[in-house]
Amino acid sequence: MSPRRLFFIAALTAGIAGPALAEVVGKVGVDWVGNDIVVEAVTDPDVKGVTCHVTYFDRSIIDRLSNGNWFEDPSNNSIACRQTGPIEVGQIDLSEEGEEVFREGRSIIWKSLVVNRIYDKKNDTLIYLAHSRQVVEGSAKMSISTVPLFNQNVTWTNGKPQ
């Protein structure tokens, strides 16, 4: 089991994992030492009918041992979110900062892959931002995806924001 997975399991049992869980749907080997690009499906817990696919680089134990930087993980990630069913928007944060909908440990202690959702009221669009968060400092590497709600049959459980 990878160190990232061990941390995620520990975080989950400690109650510090994010509100959404990811399901690995693909894994592509990129070299002979076992480094992989992992593709996970993440469903938004407060917006039914939207699925995000997040990719990231997963370093192998061989790579970690041979390079001597056991705890480092690259912050490279990508995200694509699409409508995958009827959209039903629950109680979501409408502030400019939005809210965290997914978090997964990317190193044993220091780094997390985070997905935030922001609602762009003017353009009636959900924005999903994937980025890395470190305890010491953040990462400038990020990725963004949008799900337009305009002209869609969307159910707002608490009424559409005006």
TrEMBL record:
<protein>
    <submittedName>
        <fullName>CREA protein</fullName>
    </submittedName>
</protein>
<dbReference type="InterPro" id="IPR010292">
    <property type="entry name" value="Uncharacterised_CreA"/>
</dbReference>
<dbReference type="Pfam" id="PF05981">
    <property type="entry name" value="CreA"/>
</dbReference>
<keyword id="KW-0732">Signal</keyword>
<feature type="signal peptide">
    <location>
        <begin position="1"/>
        <end position="22"/>
    </location>
</feature>
